[in-house]
Amino acid sequence: MAADHHATPGEPATPSEEAEAARQPARRPGVGMIVYGVIAALVIGTASFFSIQAATAGADLRSNLTLIAPAGAGGGWDGFTRSQQSAMRVNGIVNNAQVVNIPGAGGTIGLGRFSTMQGQADTLMATGSVMLGGIELNNSPVDLSDVRPIARLSDDFDAIVVPADSPYETIDDLVADWKQDPASFPWTGGSVGSIDHLIIAELALEAGIDPAEITYIPKTSGGEAIQTIASGTAKAATSGYNEFADQIEAGRIRALGISSPERLDGVDVPTITEQGYDVVMANWRGMLAAPGITDEQFEELEAIVTETSQTPEWRQALEDNEWTDSFMTGEEFEQFIAEDQEKIAALIEELDL
Description:
The chain is α/β, with parallel strands linked by helices. Strands 1, 2, 3, 4, 5, 6, 7, 8, 9 and 10 form a 10-stranded mixed sheet that branches. It is globular, with a radius of gyration of 20 Å. It has helices at about 15-20, 30-35, 40-55, 75-90, 110-115, 130-135, 170-180, 195-205, 220-230, 240-250, 295-310, 310-320, 330-350; strands spanning about 65-70, 95-100, 125-130, 150-165, 185-190, 215-220, 235-240, 255-260, 280-290, 325-330. The protein contains 13 helices and 10 strands.
């Protein structure tokens, strides 16, 4: 959930982004050390694979390429990575592209492993806003400056929803009730510290509510969040719009606003911003290269990712998953990462996590 959604190549991702992010408790002393104390145990199953791959990799990066999804099978990162894999294969961009999953701690277990793969140009890893949140929540000893960001490829925007019979028709209606007693107004969404949680925090700040007073019930999917508001356990939910779309269209839940900068094509839901609350946040995803590769290798990998983003298969994946094309590379992408990391860190601090 803004929040990642078994996806086979070309199929829409289904479970939420936060299903892939470890369900993080409120930050407490030592949690980062605890998480990273188990990295070796969690990645031991992939160690021999990467050793063999490194020993056999050829100079032609278009012959064999490994794509790491830093999450379990079935999540949004998994679906995103397998959609890339499919587009590469079908269009002959890479002859043999394979996906390896390294789940845990909002993607930071995978990031920790990837940061040690010095010079391994034949391996890429997916990244995104969930990973930036994981870096903050887990006091990660590594961040994206320890690897080489290639490109941002897609954005997934959150919707704020309520039950169809809710008295709230607009964000203003919801905020007016929320402000009466913030701690008694339960929200639900993805894991603690997820994009879903951060969007609620940003809305709270805009509405003059202390984010530390938010009552938040973390769930692993949009379906679970819908059940939570349907039962009355929570009054409102946030998650990727694509996770709610079917239920919105069926009239079972009502979407009050979307966290996009402008209305989504074909979606008759106002943005949160146009309702007077400057809340714009994307669950973005992109690709990373390993540290220590040459500039020539990096340029070739950037070309591979760029070509993949222009294929009909990738365009279809964007449409199927209701992702927004946000392709970005180079210094612009690096600057975006720095700004997004700063924003996420500030919101997590506001939440007192």
